[in-house]
Amino acid sequence: MSSENAGAPSQEGVPLKKTNVSVGVLGHVDSGKTSLCKELSITASTAAFDQNPQSQERGITLDLGFSAFTLEDKWNVTLVDCPGHASLIRTVLGGIQIMDIMLLILDVTKGMQTQSSECLILADVLASHLIVALNKVDMLPVESRQTKIDKAKKMLKATLARTKFGENAPIVLCSALDKSIGVDTVKEAILDKIKAMTLVRYEDRPFVIAVDHCFQKKGQGTICTGTVIQGTVKIGDMVELPEQQIQRKVKTIQSFKVPLTSAVAGDRVGMCIGAFDSSLMERGIISAPGHISVGTRYVLMKLHRIKYYKHSITSKSRFHISIGYETTTAVITLFEHPKENFDFQPTIDYNYVDELSPEEKGEKTFFAVLEFDHPVTTLQHVKIIGSNLQIPPNSNECRLAFYGEVERSCQIKDKSNFLAQIKIYKIKKRQGILDRVTNSRTVIVRGLHQKSSNIDHLLGCKIDLSFGPESESTVVQGTIESRFGQTDKLRVNLNEDLSDIQMDKCKQKQVEVSLVHKKYVFKEEGVNSAKKLIQK
Question: What molecular functions are annotated in GO for this chain (predicted)?
Fold first, then answer.
């Protein structure tokens, strides 16, 4: 892991290349994001400023757009213009994976709207740094402008106070259309934020780039533009398109038309690699050969509930899962460990969680196994966001349910081995009947198994005789010793003598017989399939 010294001179006195900082520009539809990006930017990348014909026709951003400008000749700021329309949340969730700073754009005449609230929630759970820009200040009447601005700021600070950023998060005023107001305040806020923050770059990990656009360049190869997530790549390296299972050599590298010999984590680049059919991958991942797992069907994650989601998260329910640039559906299985911030260990048992309610409190760690409906491409530590996109986008409800990172994953062929290491259990209680008392230390019970079934798995198991609160001992425990006869009856040796009151209760059949044991969730798949019942 490293953080670059932007613009510092090398030993030969030649300045290092500029450090790239990715700023995600989010907000409600028609809040002026694209116009603001256009006003801020000097260099446009592919698909910037709604060059997509459908975007131009509909007047809204449909895809991620990339453009850039330079600050103090040290930092190259890449603006990631995200769609604001509610139905395009999948695209936004893909874009947030590559952001260093979130720039939330609000229409000052309307304040917080549905999608701006959703973007703020995303920032609260996933972004480390936030700047809020109150745009369209020129639309406010001059005579009442300051009063309206003060009111908007007051309401916004109250909202921000409920997030991790607090009420003192930077708020700036701007206008993409009125030059007298301009956008310099936005640039200044970004510069201040960059100088105050530490850019975390995982340069020591294997190379991975999130590609957002591919196209052919006749006579040269295929151009793939994207943001380097981790690692380093240089001209001449072999890289892999995991989903297409092809490898190609890197021919050239550019960053906003500036030629480079190499690129590192955080850089926004275009790579020219050996030709392939660019229609095979409009958006996806390119990596160091052999690093990425394709065809993933199961993922283990540490699950963090999003506090604004007002519904229960239940096991065996289906959620929309955004992982990298993909959004697909998966069935989740929840489990927990009683300690807070516990790291998963395959050697211990975990309690199955049927439901994680909005009211859930306490110092626990929650995990989830995701079973995807369709294979996905994964890598270690990539962000995961679970959403309920069945909730109507205009409902004013939070659709984002949980988040986390990939901890482990597997393909369908490795399913059994993968699940064997995740020992999730439910507590099951078998009810039996007291048949007779042989003596004060031995009883016969029935109803805990089928008449003709093998009972080897029951031998040695503990059972409880519950007598009620009025007796001296509420519960007496015993151990199953053997079958009694050829029926469904079992002989049980008790740990202590029955009292006279308990003996009377037995004669009156006023006793409850129970056998409590663990049932492993993945036992049906051949996991934890030993016949012996497991008890606490």
Answer: GTP binding; GTPase activity; translation elongation factor activity
Taking the CB of residue 353, how many other CB atoms lie within 10 A of it?
Answer: 21
d(CA 133, CA 107): 9
Distance from the Cα of residue 348 to its chain's centroid = 24
- The reply to whether 208-287 and 293-421 are identical in fold is yes
- For residue 34, which phi and psi values (nearest 5 degrees)? -65, -40
Give the separation between CA 491 and CA 444, rounded to whole angstroms.
5
For residue 63, which phi and psi values (nearest 5 degrees)?
-145, 175
Q: How many CA atoms lie within 13 A of 50 on its CB side?
A: 19
Query: Comparing C-alpha atoms, which of 412, 426, 416, 424 is closest to residue 526?
Result: 416
Nearest to 33 by CA among 106, 93, 95, 94: 106
Residue 94 corresponds to which tokens in the numbers above? 């893909």
H or E segment to which residue 334 belongs: strand 326-337
Per-domain boundaries in the chain = 19-196, 208-287, 293-421, 429-517
Give me the pLDDT at residue 135, please: 96
pLDDT interval class at 143 (50, 70, 90): very high
Q: Which CATH architecture has domain 19-196?
A: 3-Layer(aba) Sandwich (3.40)
pLDDT, greater one: 81 or 183: 183
Mean pLDDT check: name the lowest of 238-242, 373-377, 393-397. 393-397
Distance (Å, rounded) from C-alpha 180 to C-alpha 178? Answer: 5
C-alpha span between 421 and 402 (Å, rounded): 23
Q: What is the token pair recorded at 360?
A: 């859930």
Query: In CATH, what number does 429-517 get?
Result: 2.40.10.190
How, if at all, do strands 423-439 and 326-337 pair?
A: unpaired
Angle, helices 33-40/184-196, rounded to nearest 10 degrees: 80
pLDDT band at 283 (very low <50, low <70, confident <90, very high): confident
- The arrangement of secondary structure in 293-421, i.e. its CATH architecture, is Beta Barrel (2.40)
What is the token pair recorded at 260? 């480079």
Percent of the chain with pLDDT over 90: 58
What gap in Å lies between CA 501 and CA 467, rounded to an integer?
9
Strands annotated E in 218-325: 221-230, 232-234, 238-241, 246-255, 258-260, 262-264, 268-273, 284-287, 293-305, 313-314, 318-323
> Whole-prediction pTM value?
0.81
CATH superfamily of 208-287: Translation factors (2.40.30.10)
Cα torsion angle, 218, 219, 221, 225, sign: negative
* Alpha-carbon distances of 257 from 29, 68, 275, rounded to whole Å: 30, 11, 20
* Average pLDDT of the residues in 500-529: 81
Q: What is the mean pLDDT of the chain?
A: 86
Place 485 in a pLDDT band, splitting at 50, 70 and 90. confident
- What SS3 state is found at 143? helix
Q: What is the widest separation between alpha-carbon atoms in the chain?
A: 98
**275's tokens:** 């030709």
State the Cα angle at 500 between 497 and 503, rounded to 5°.
Answer: 75
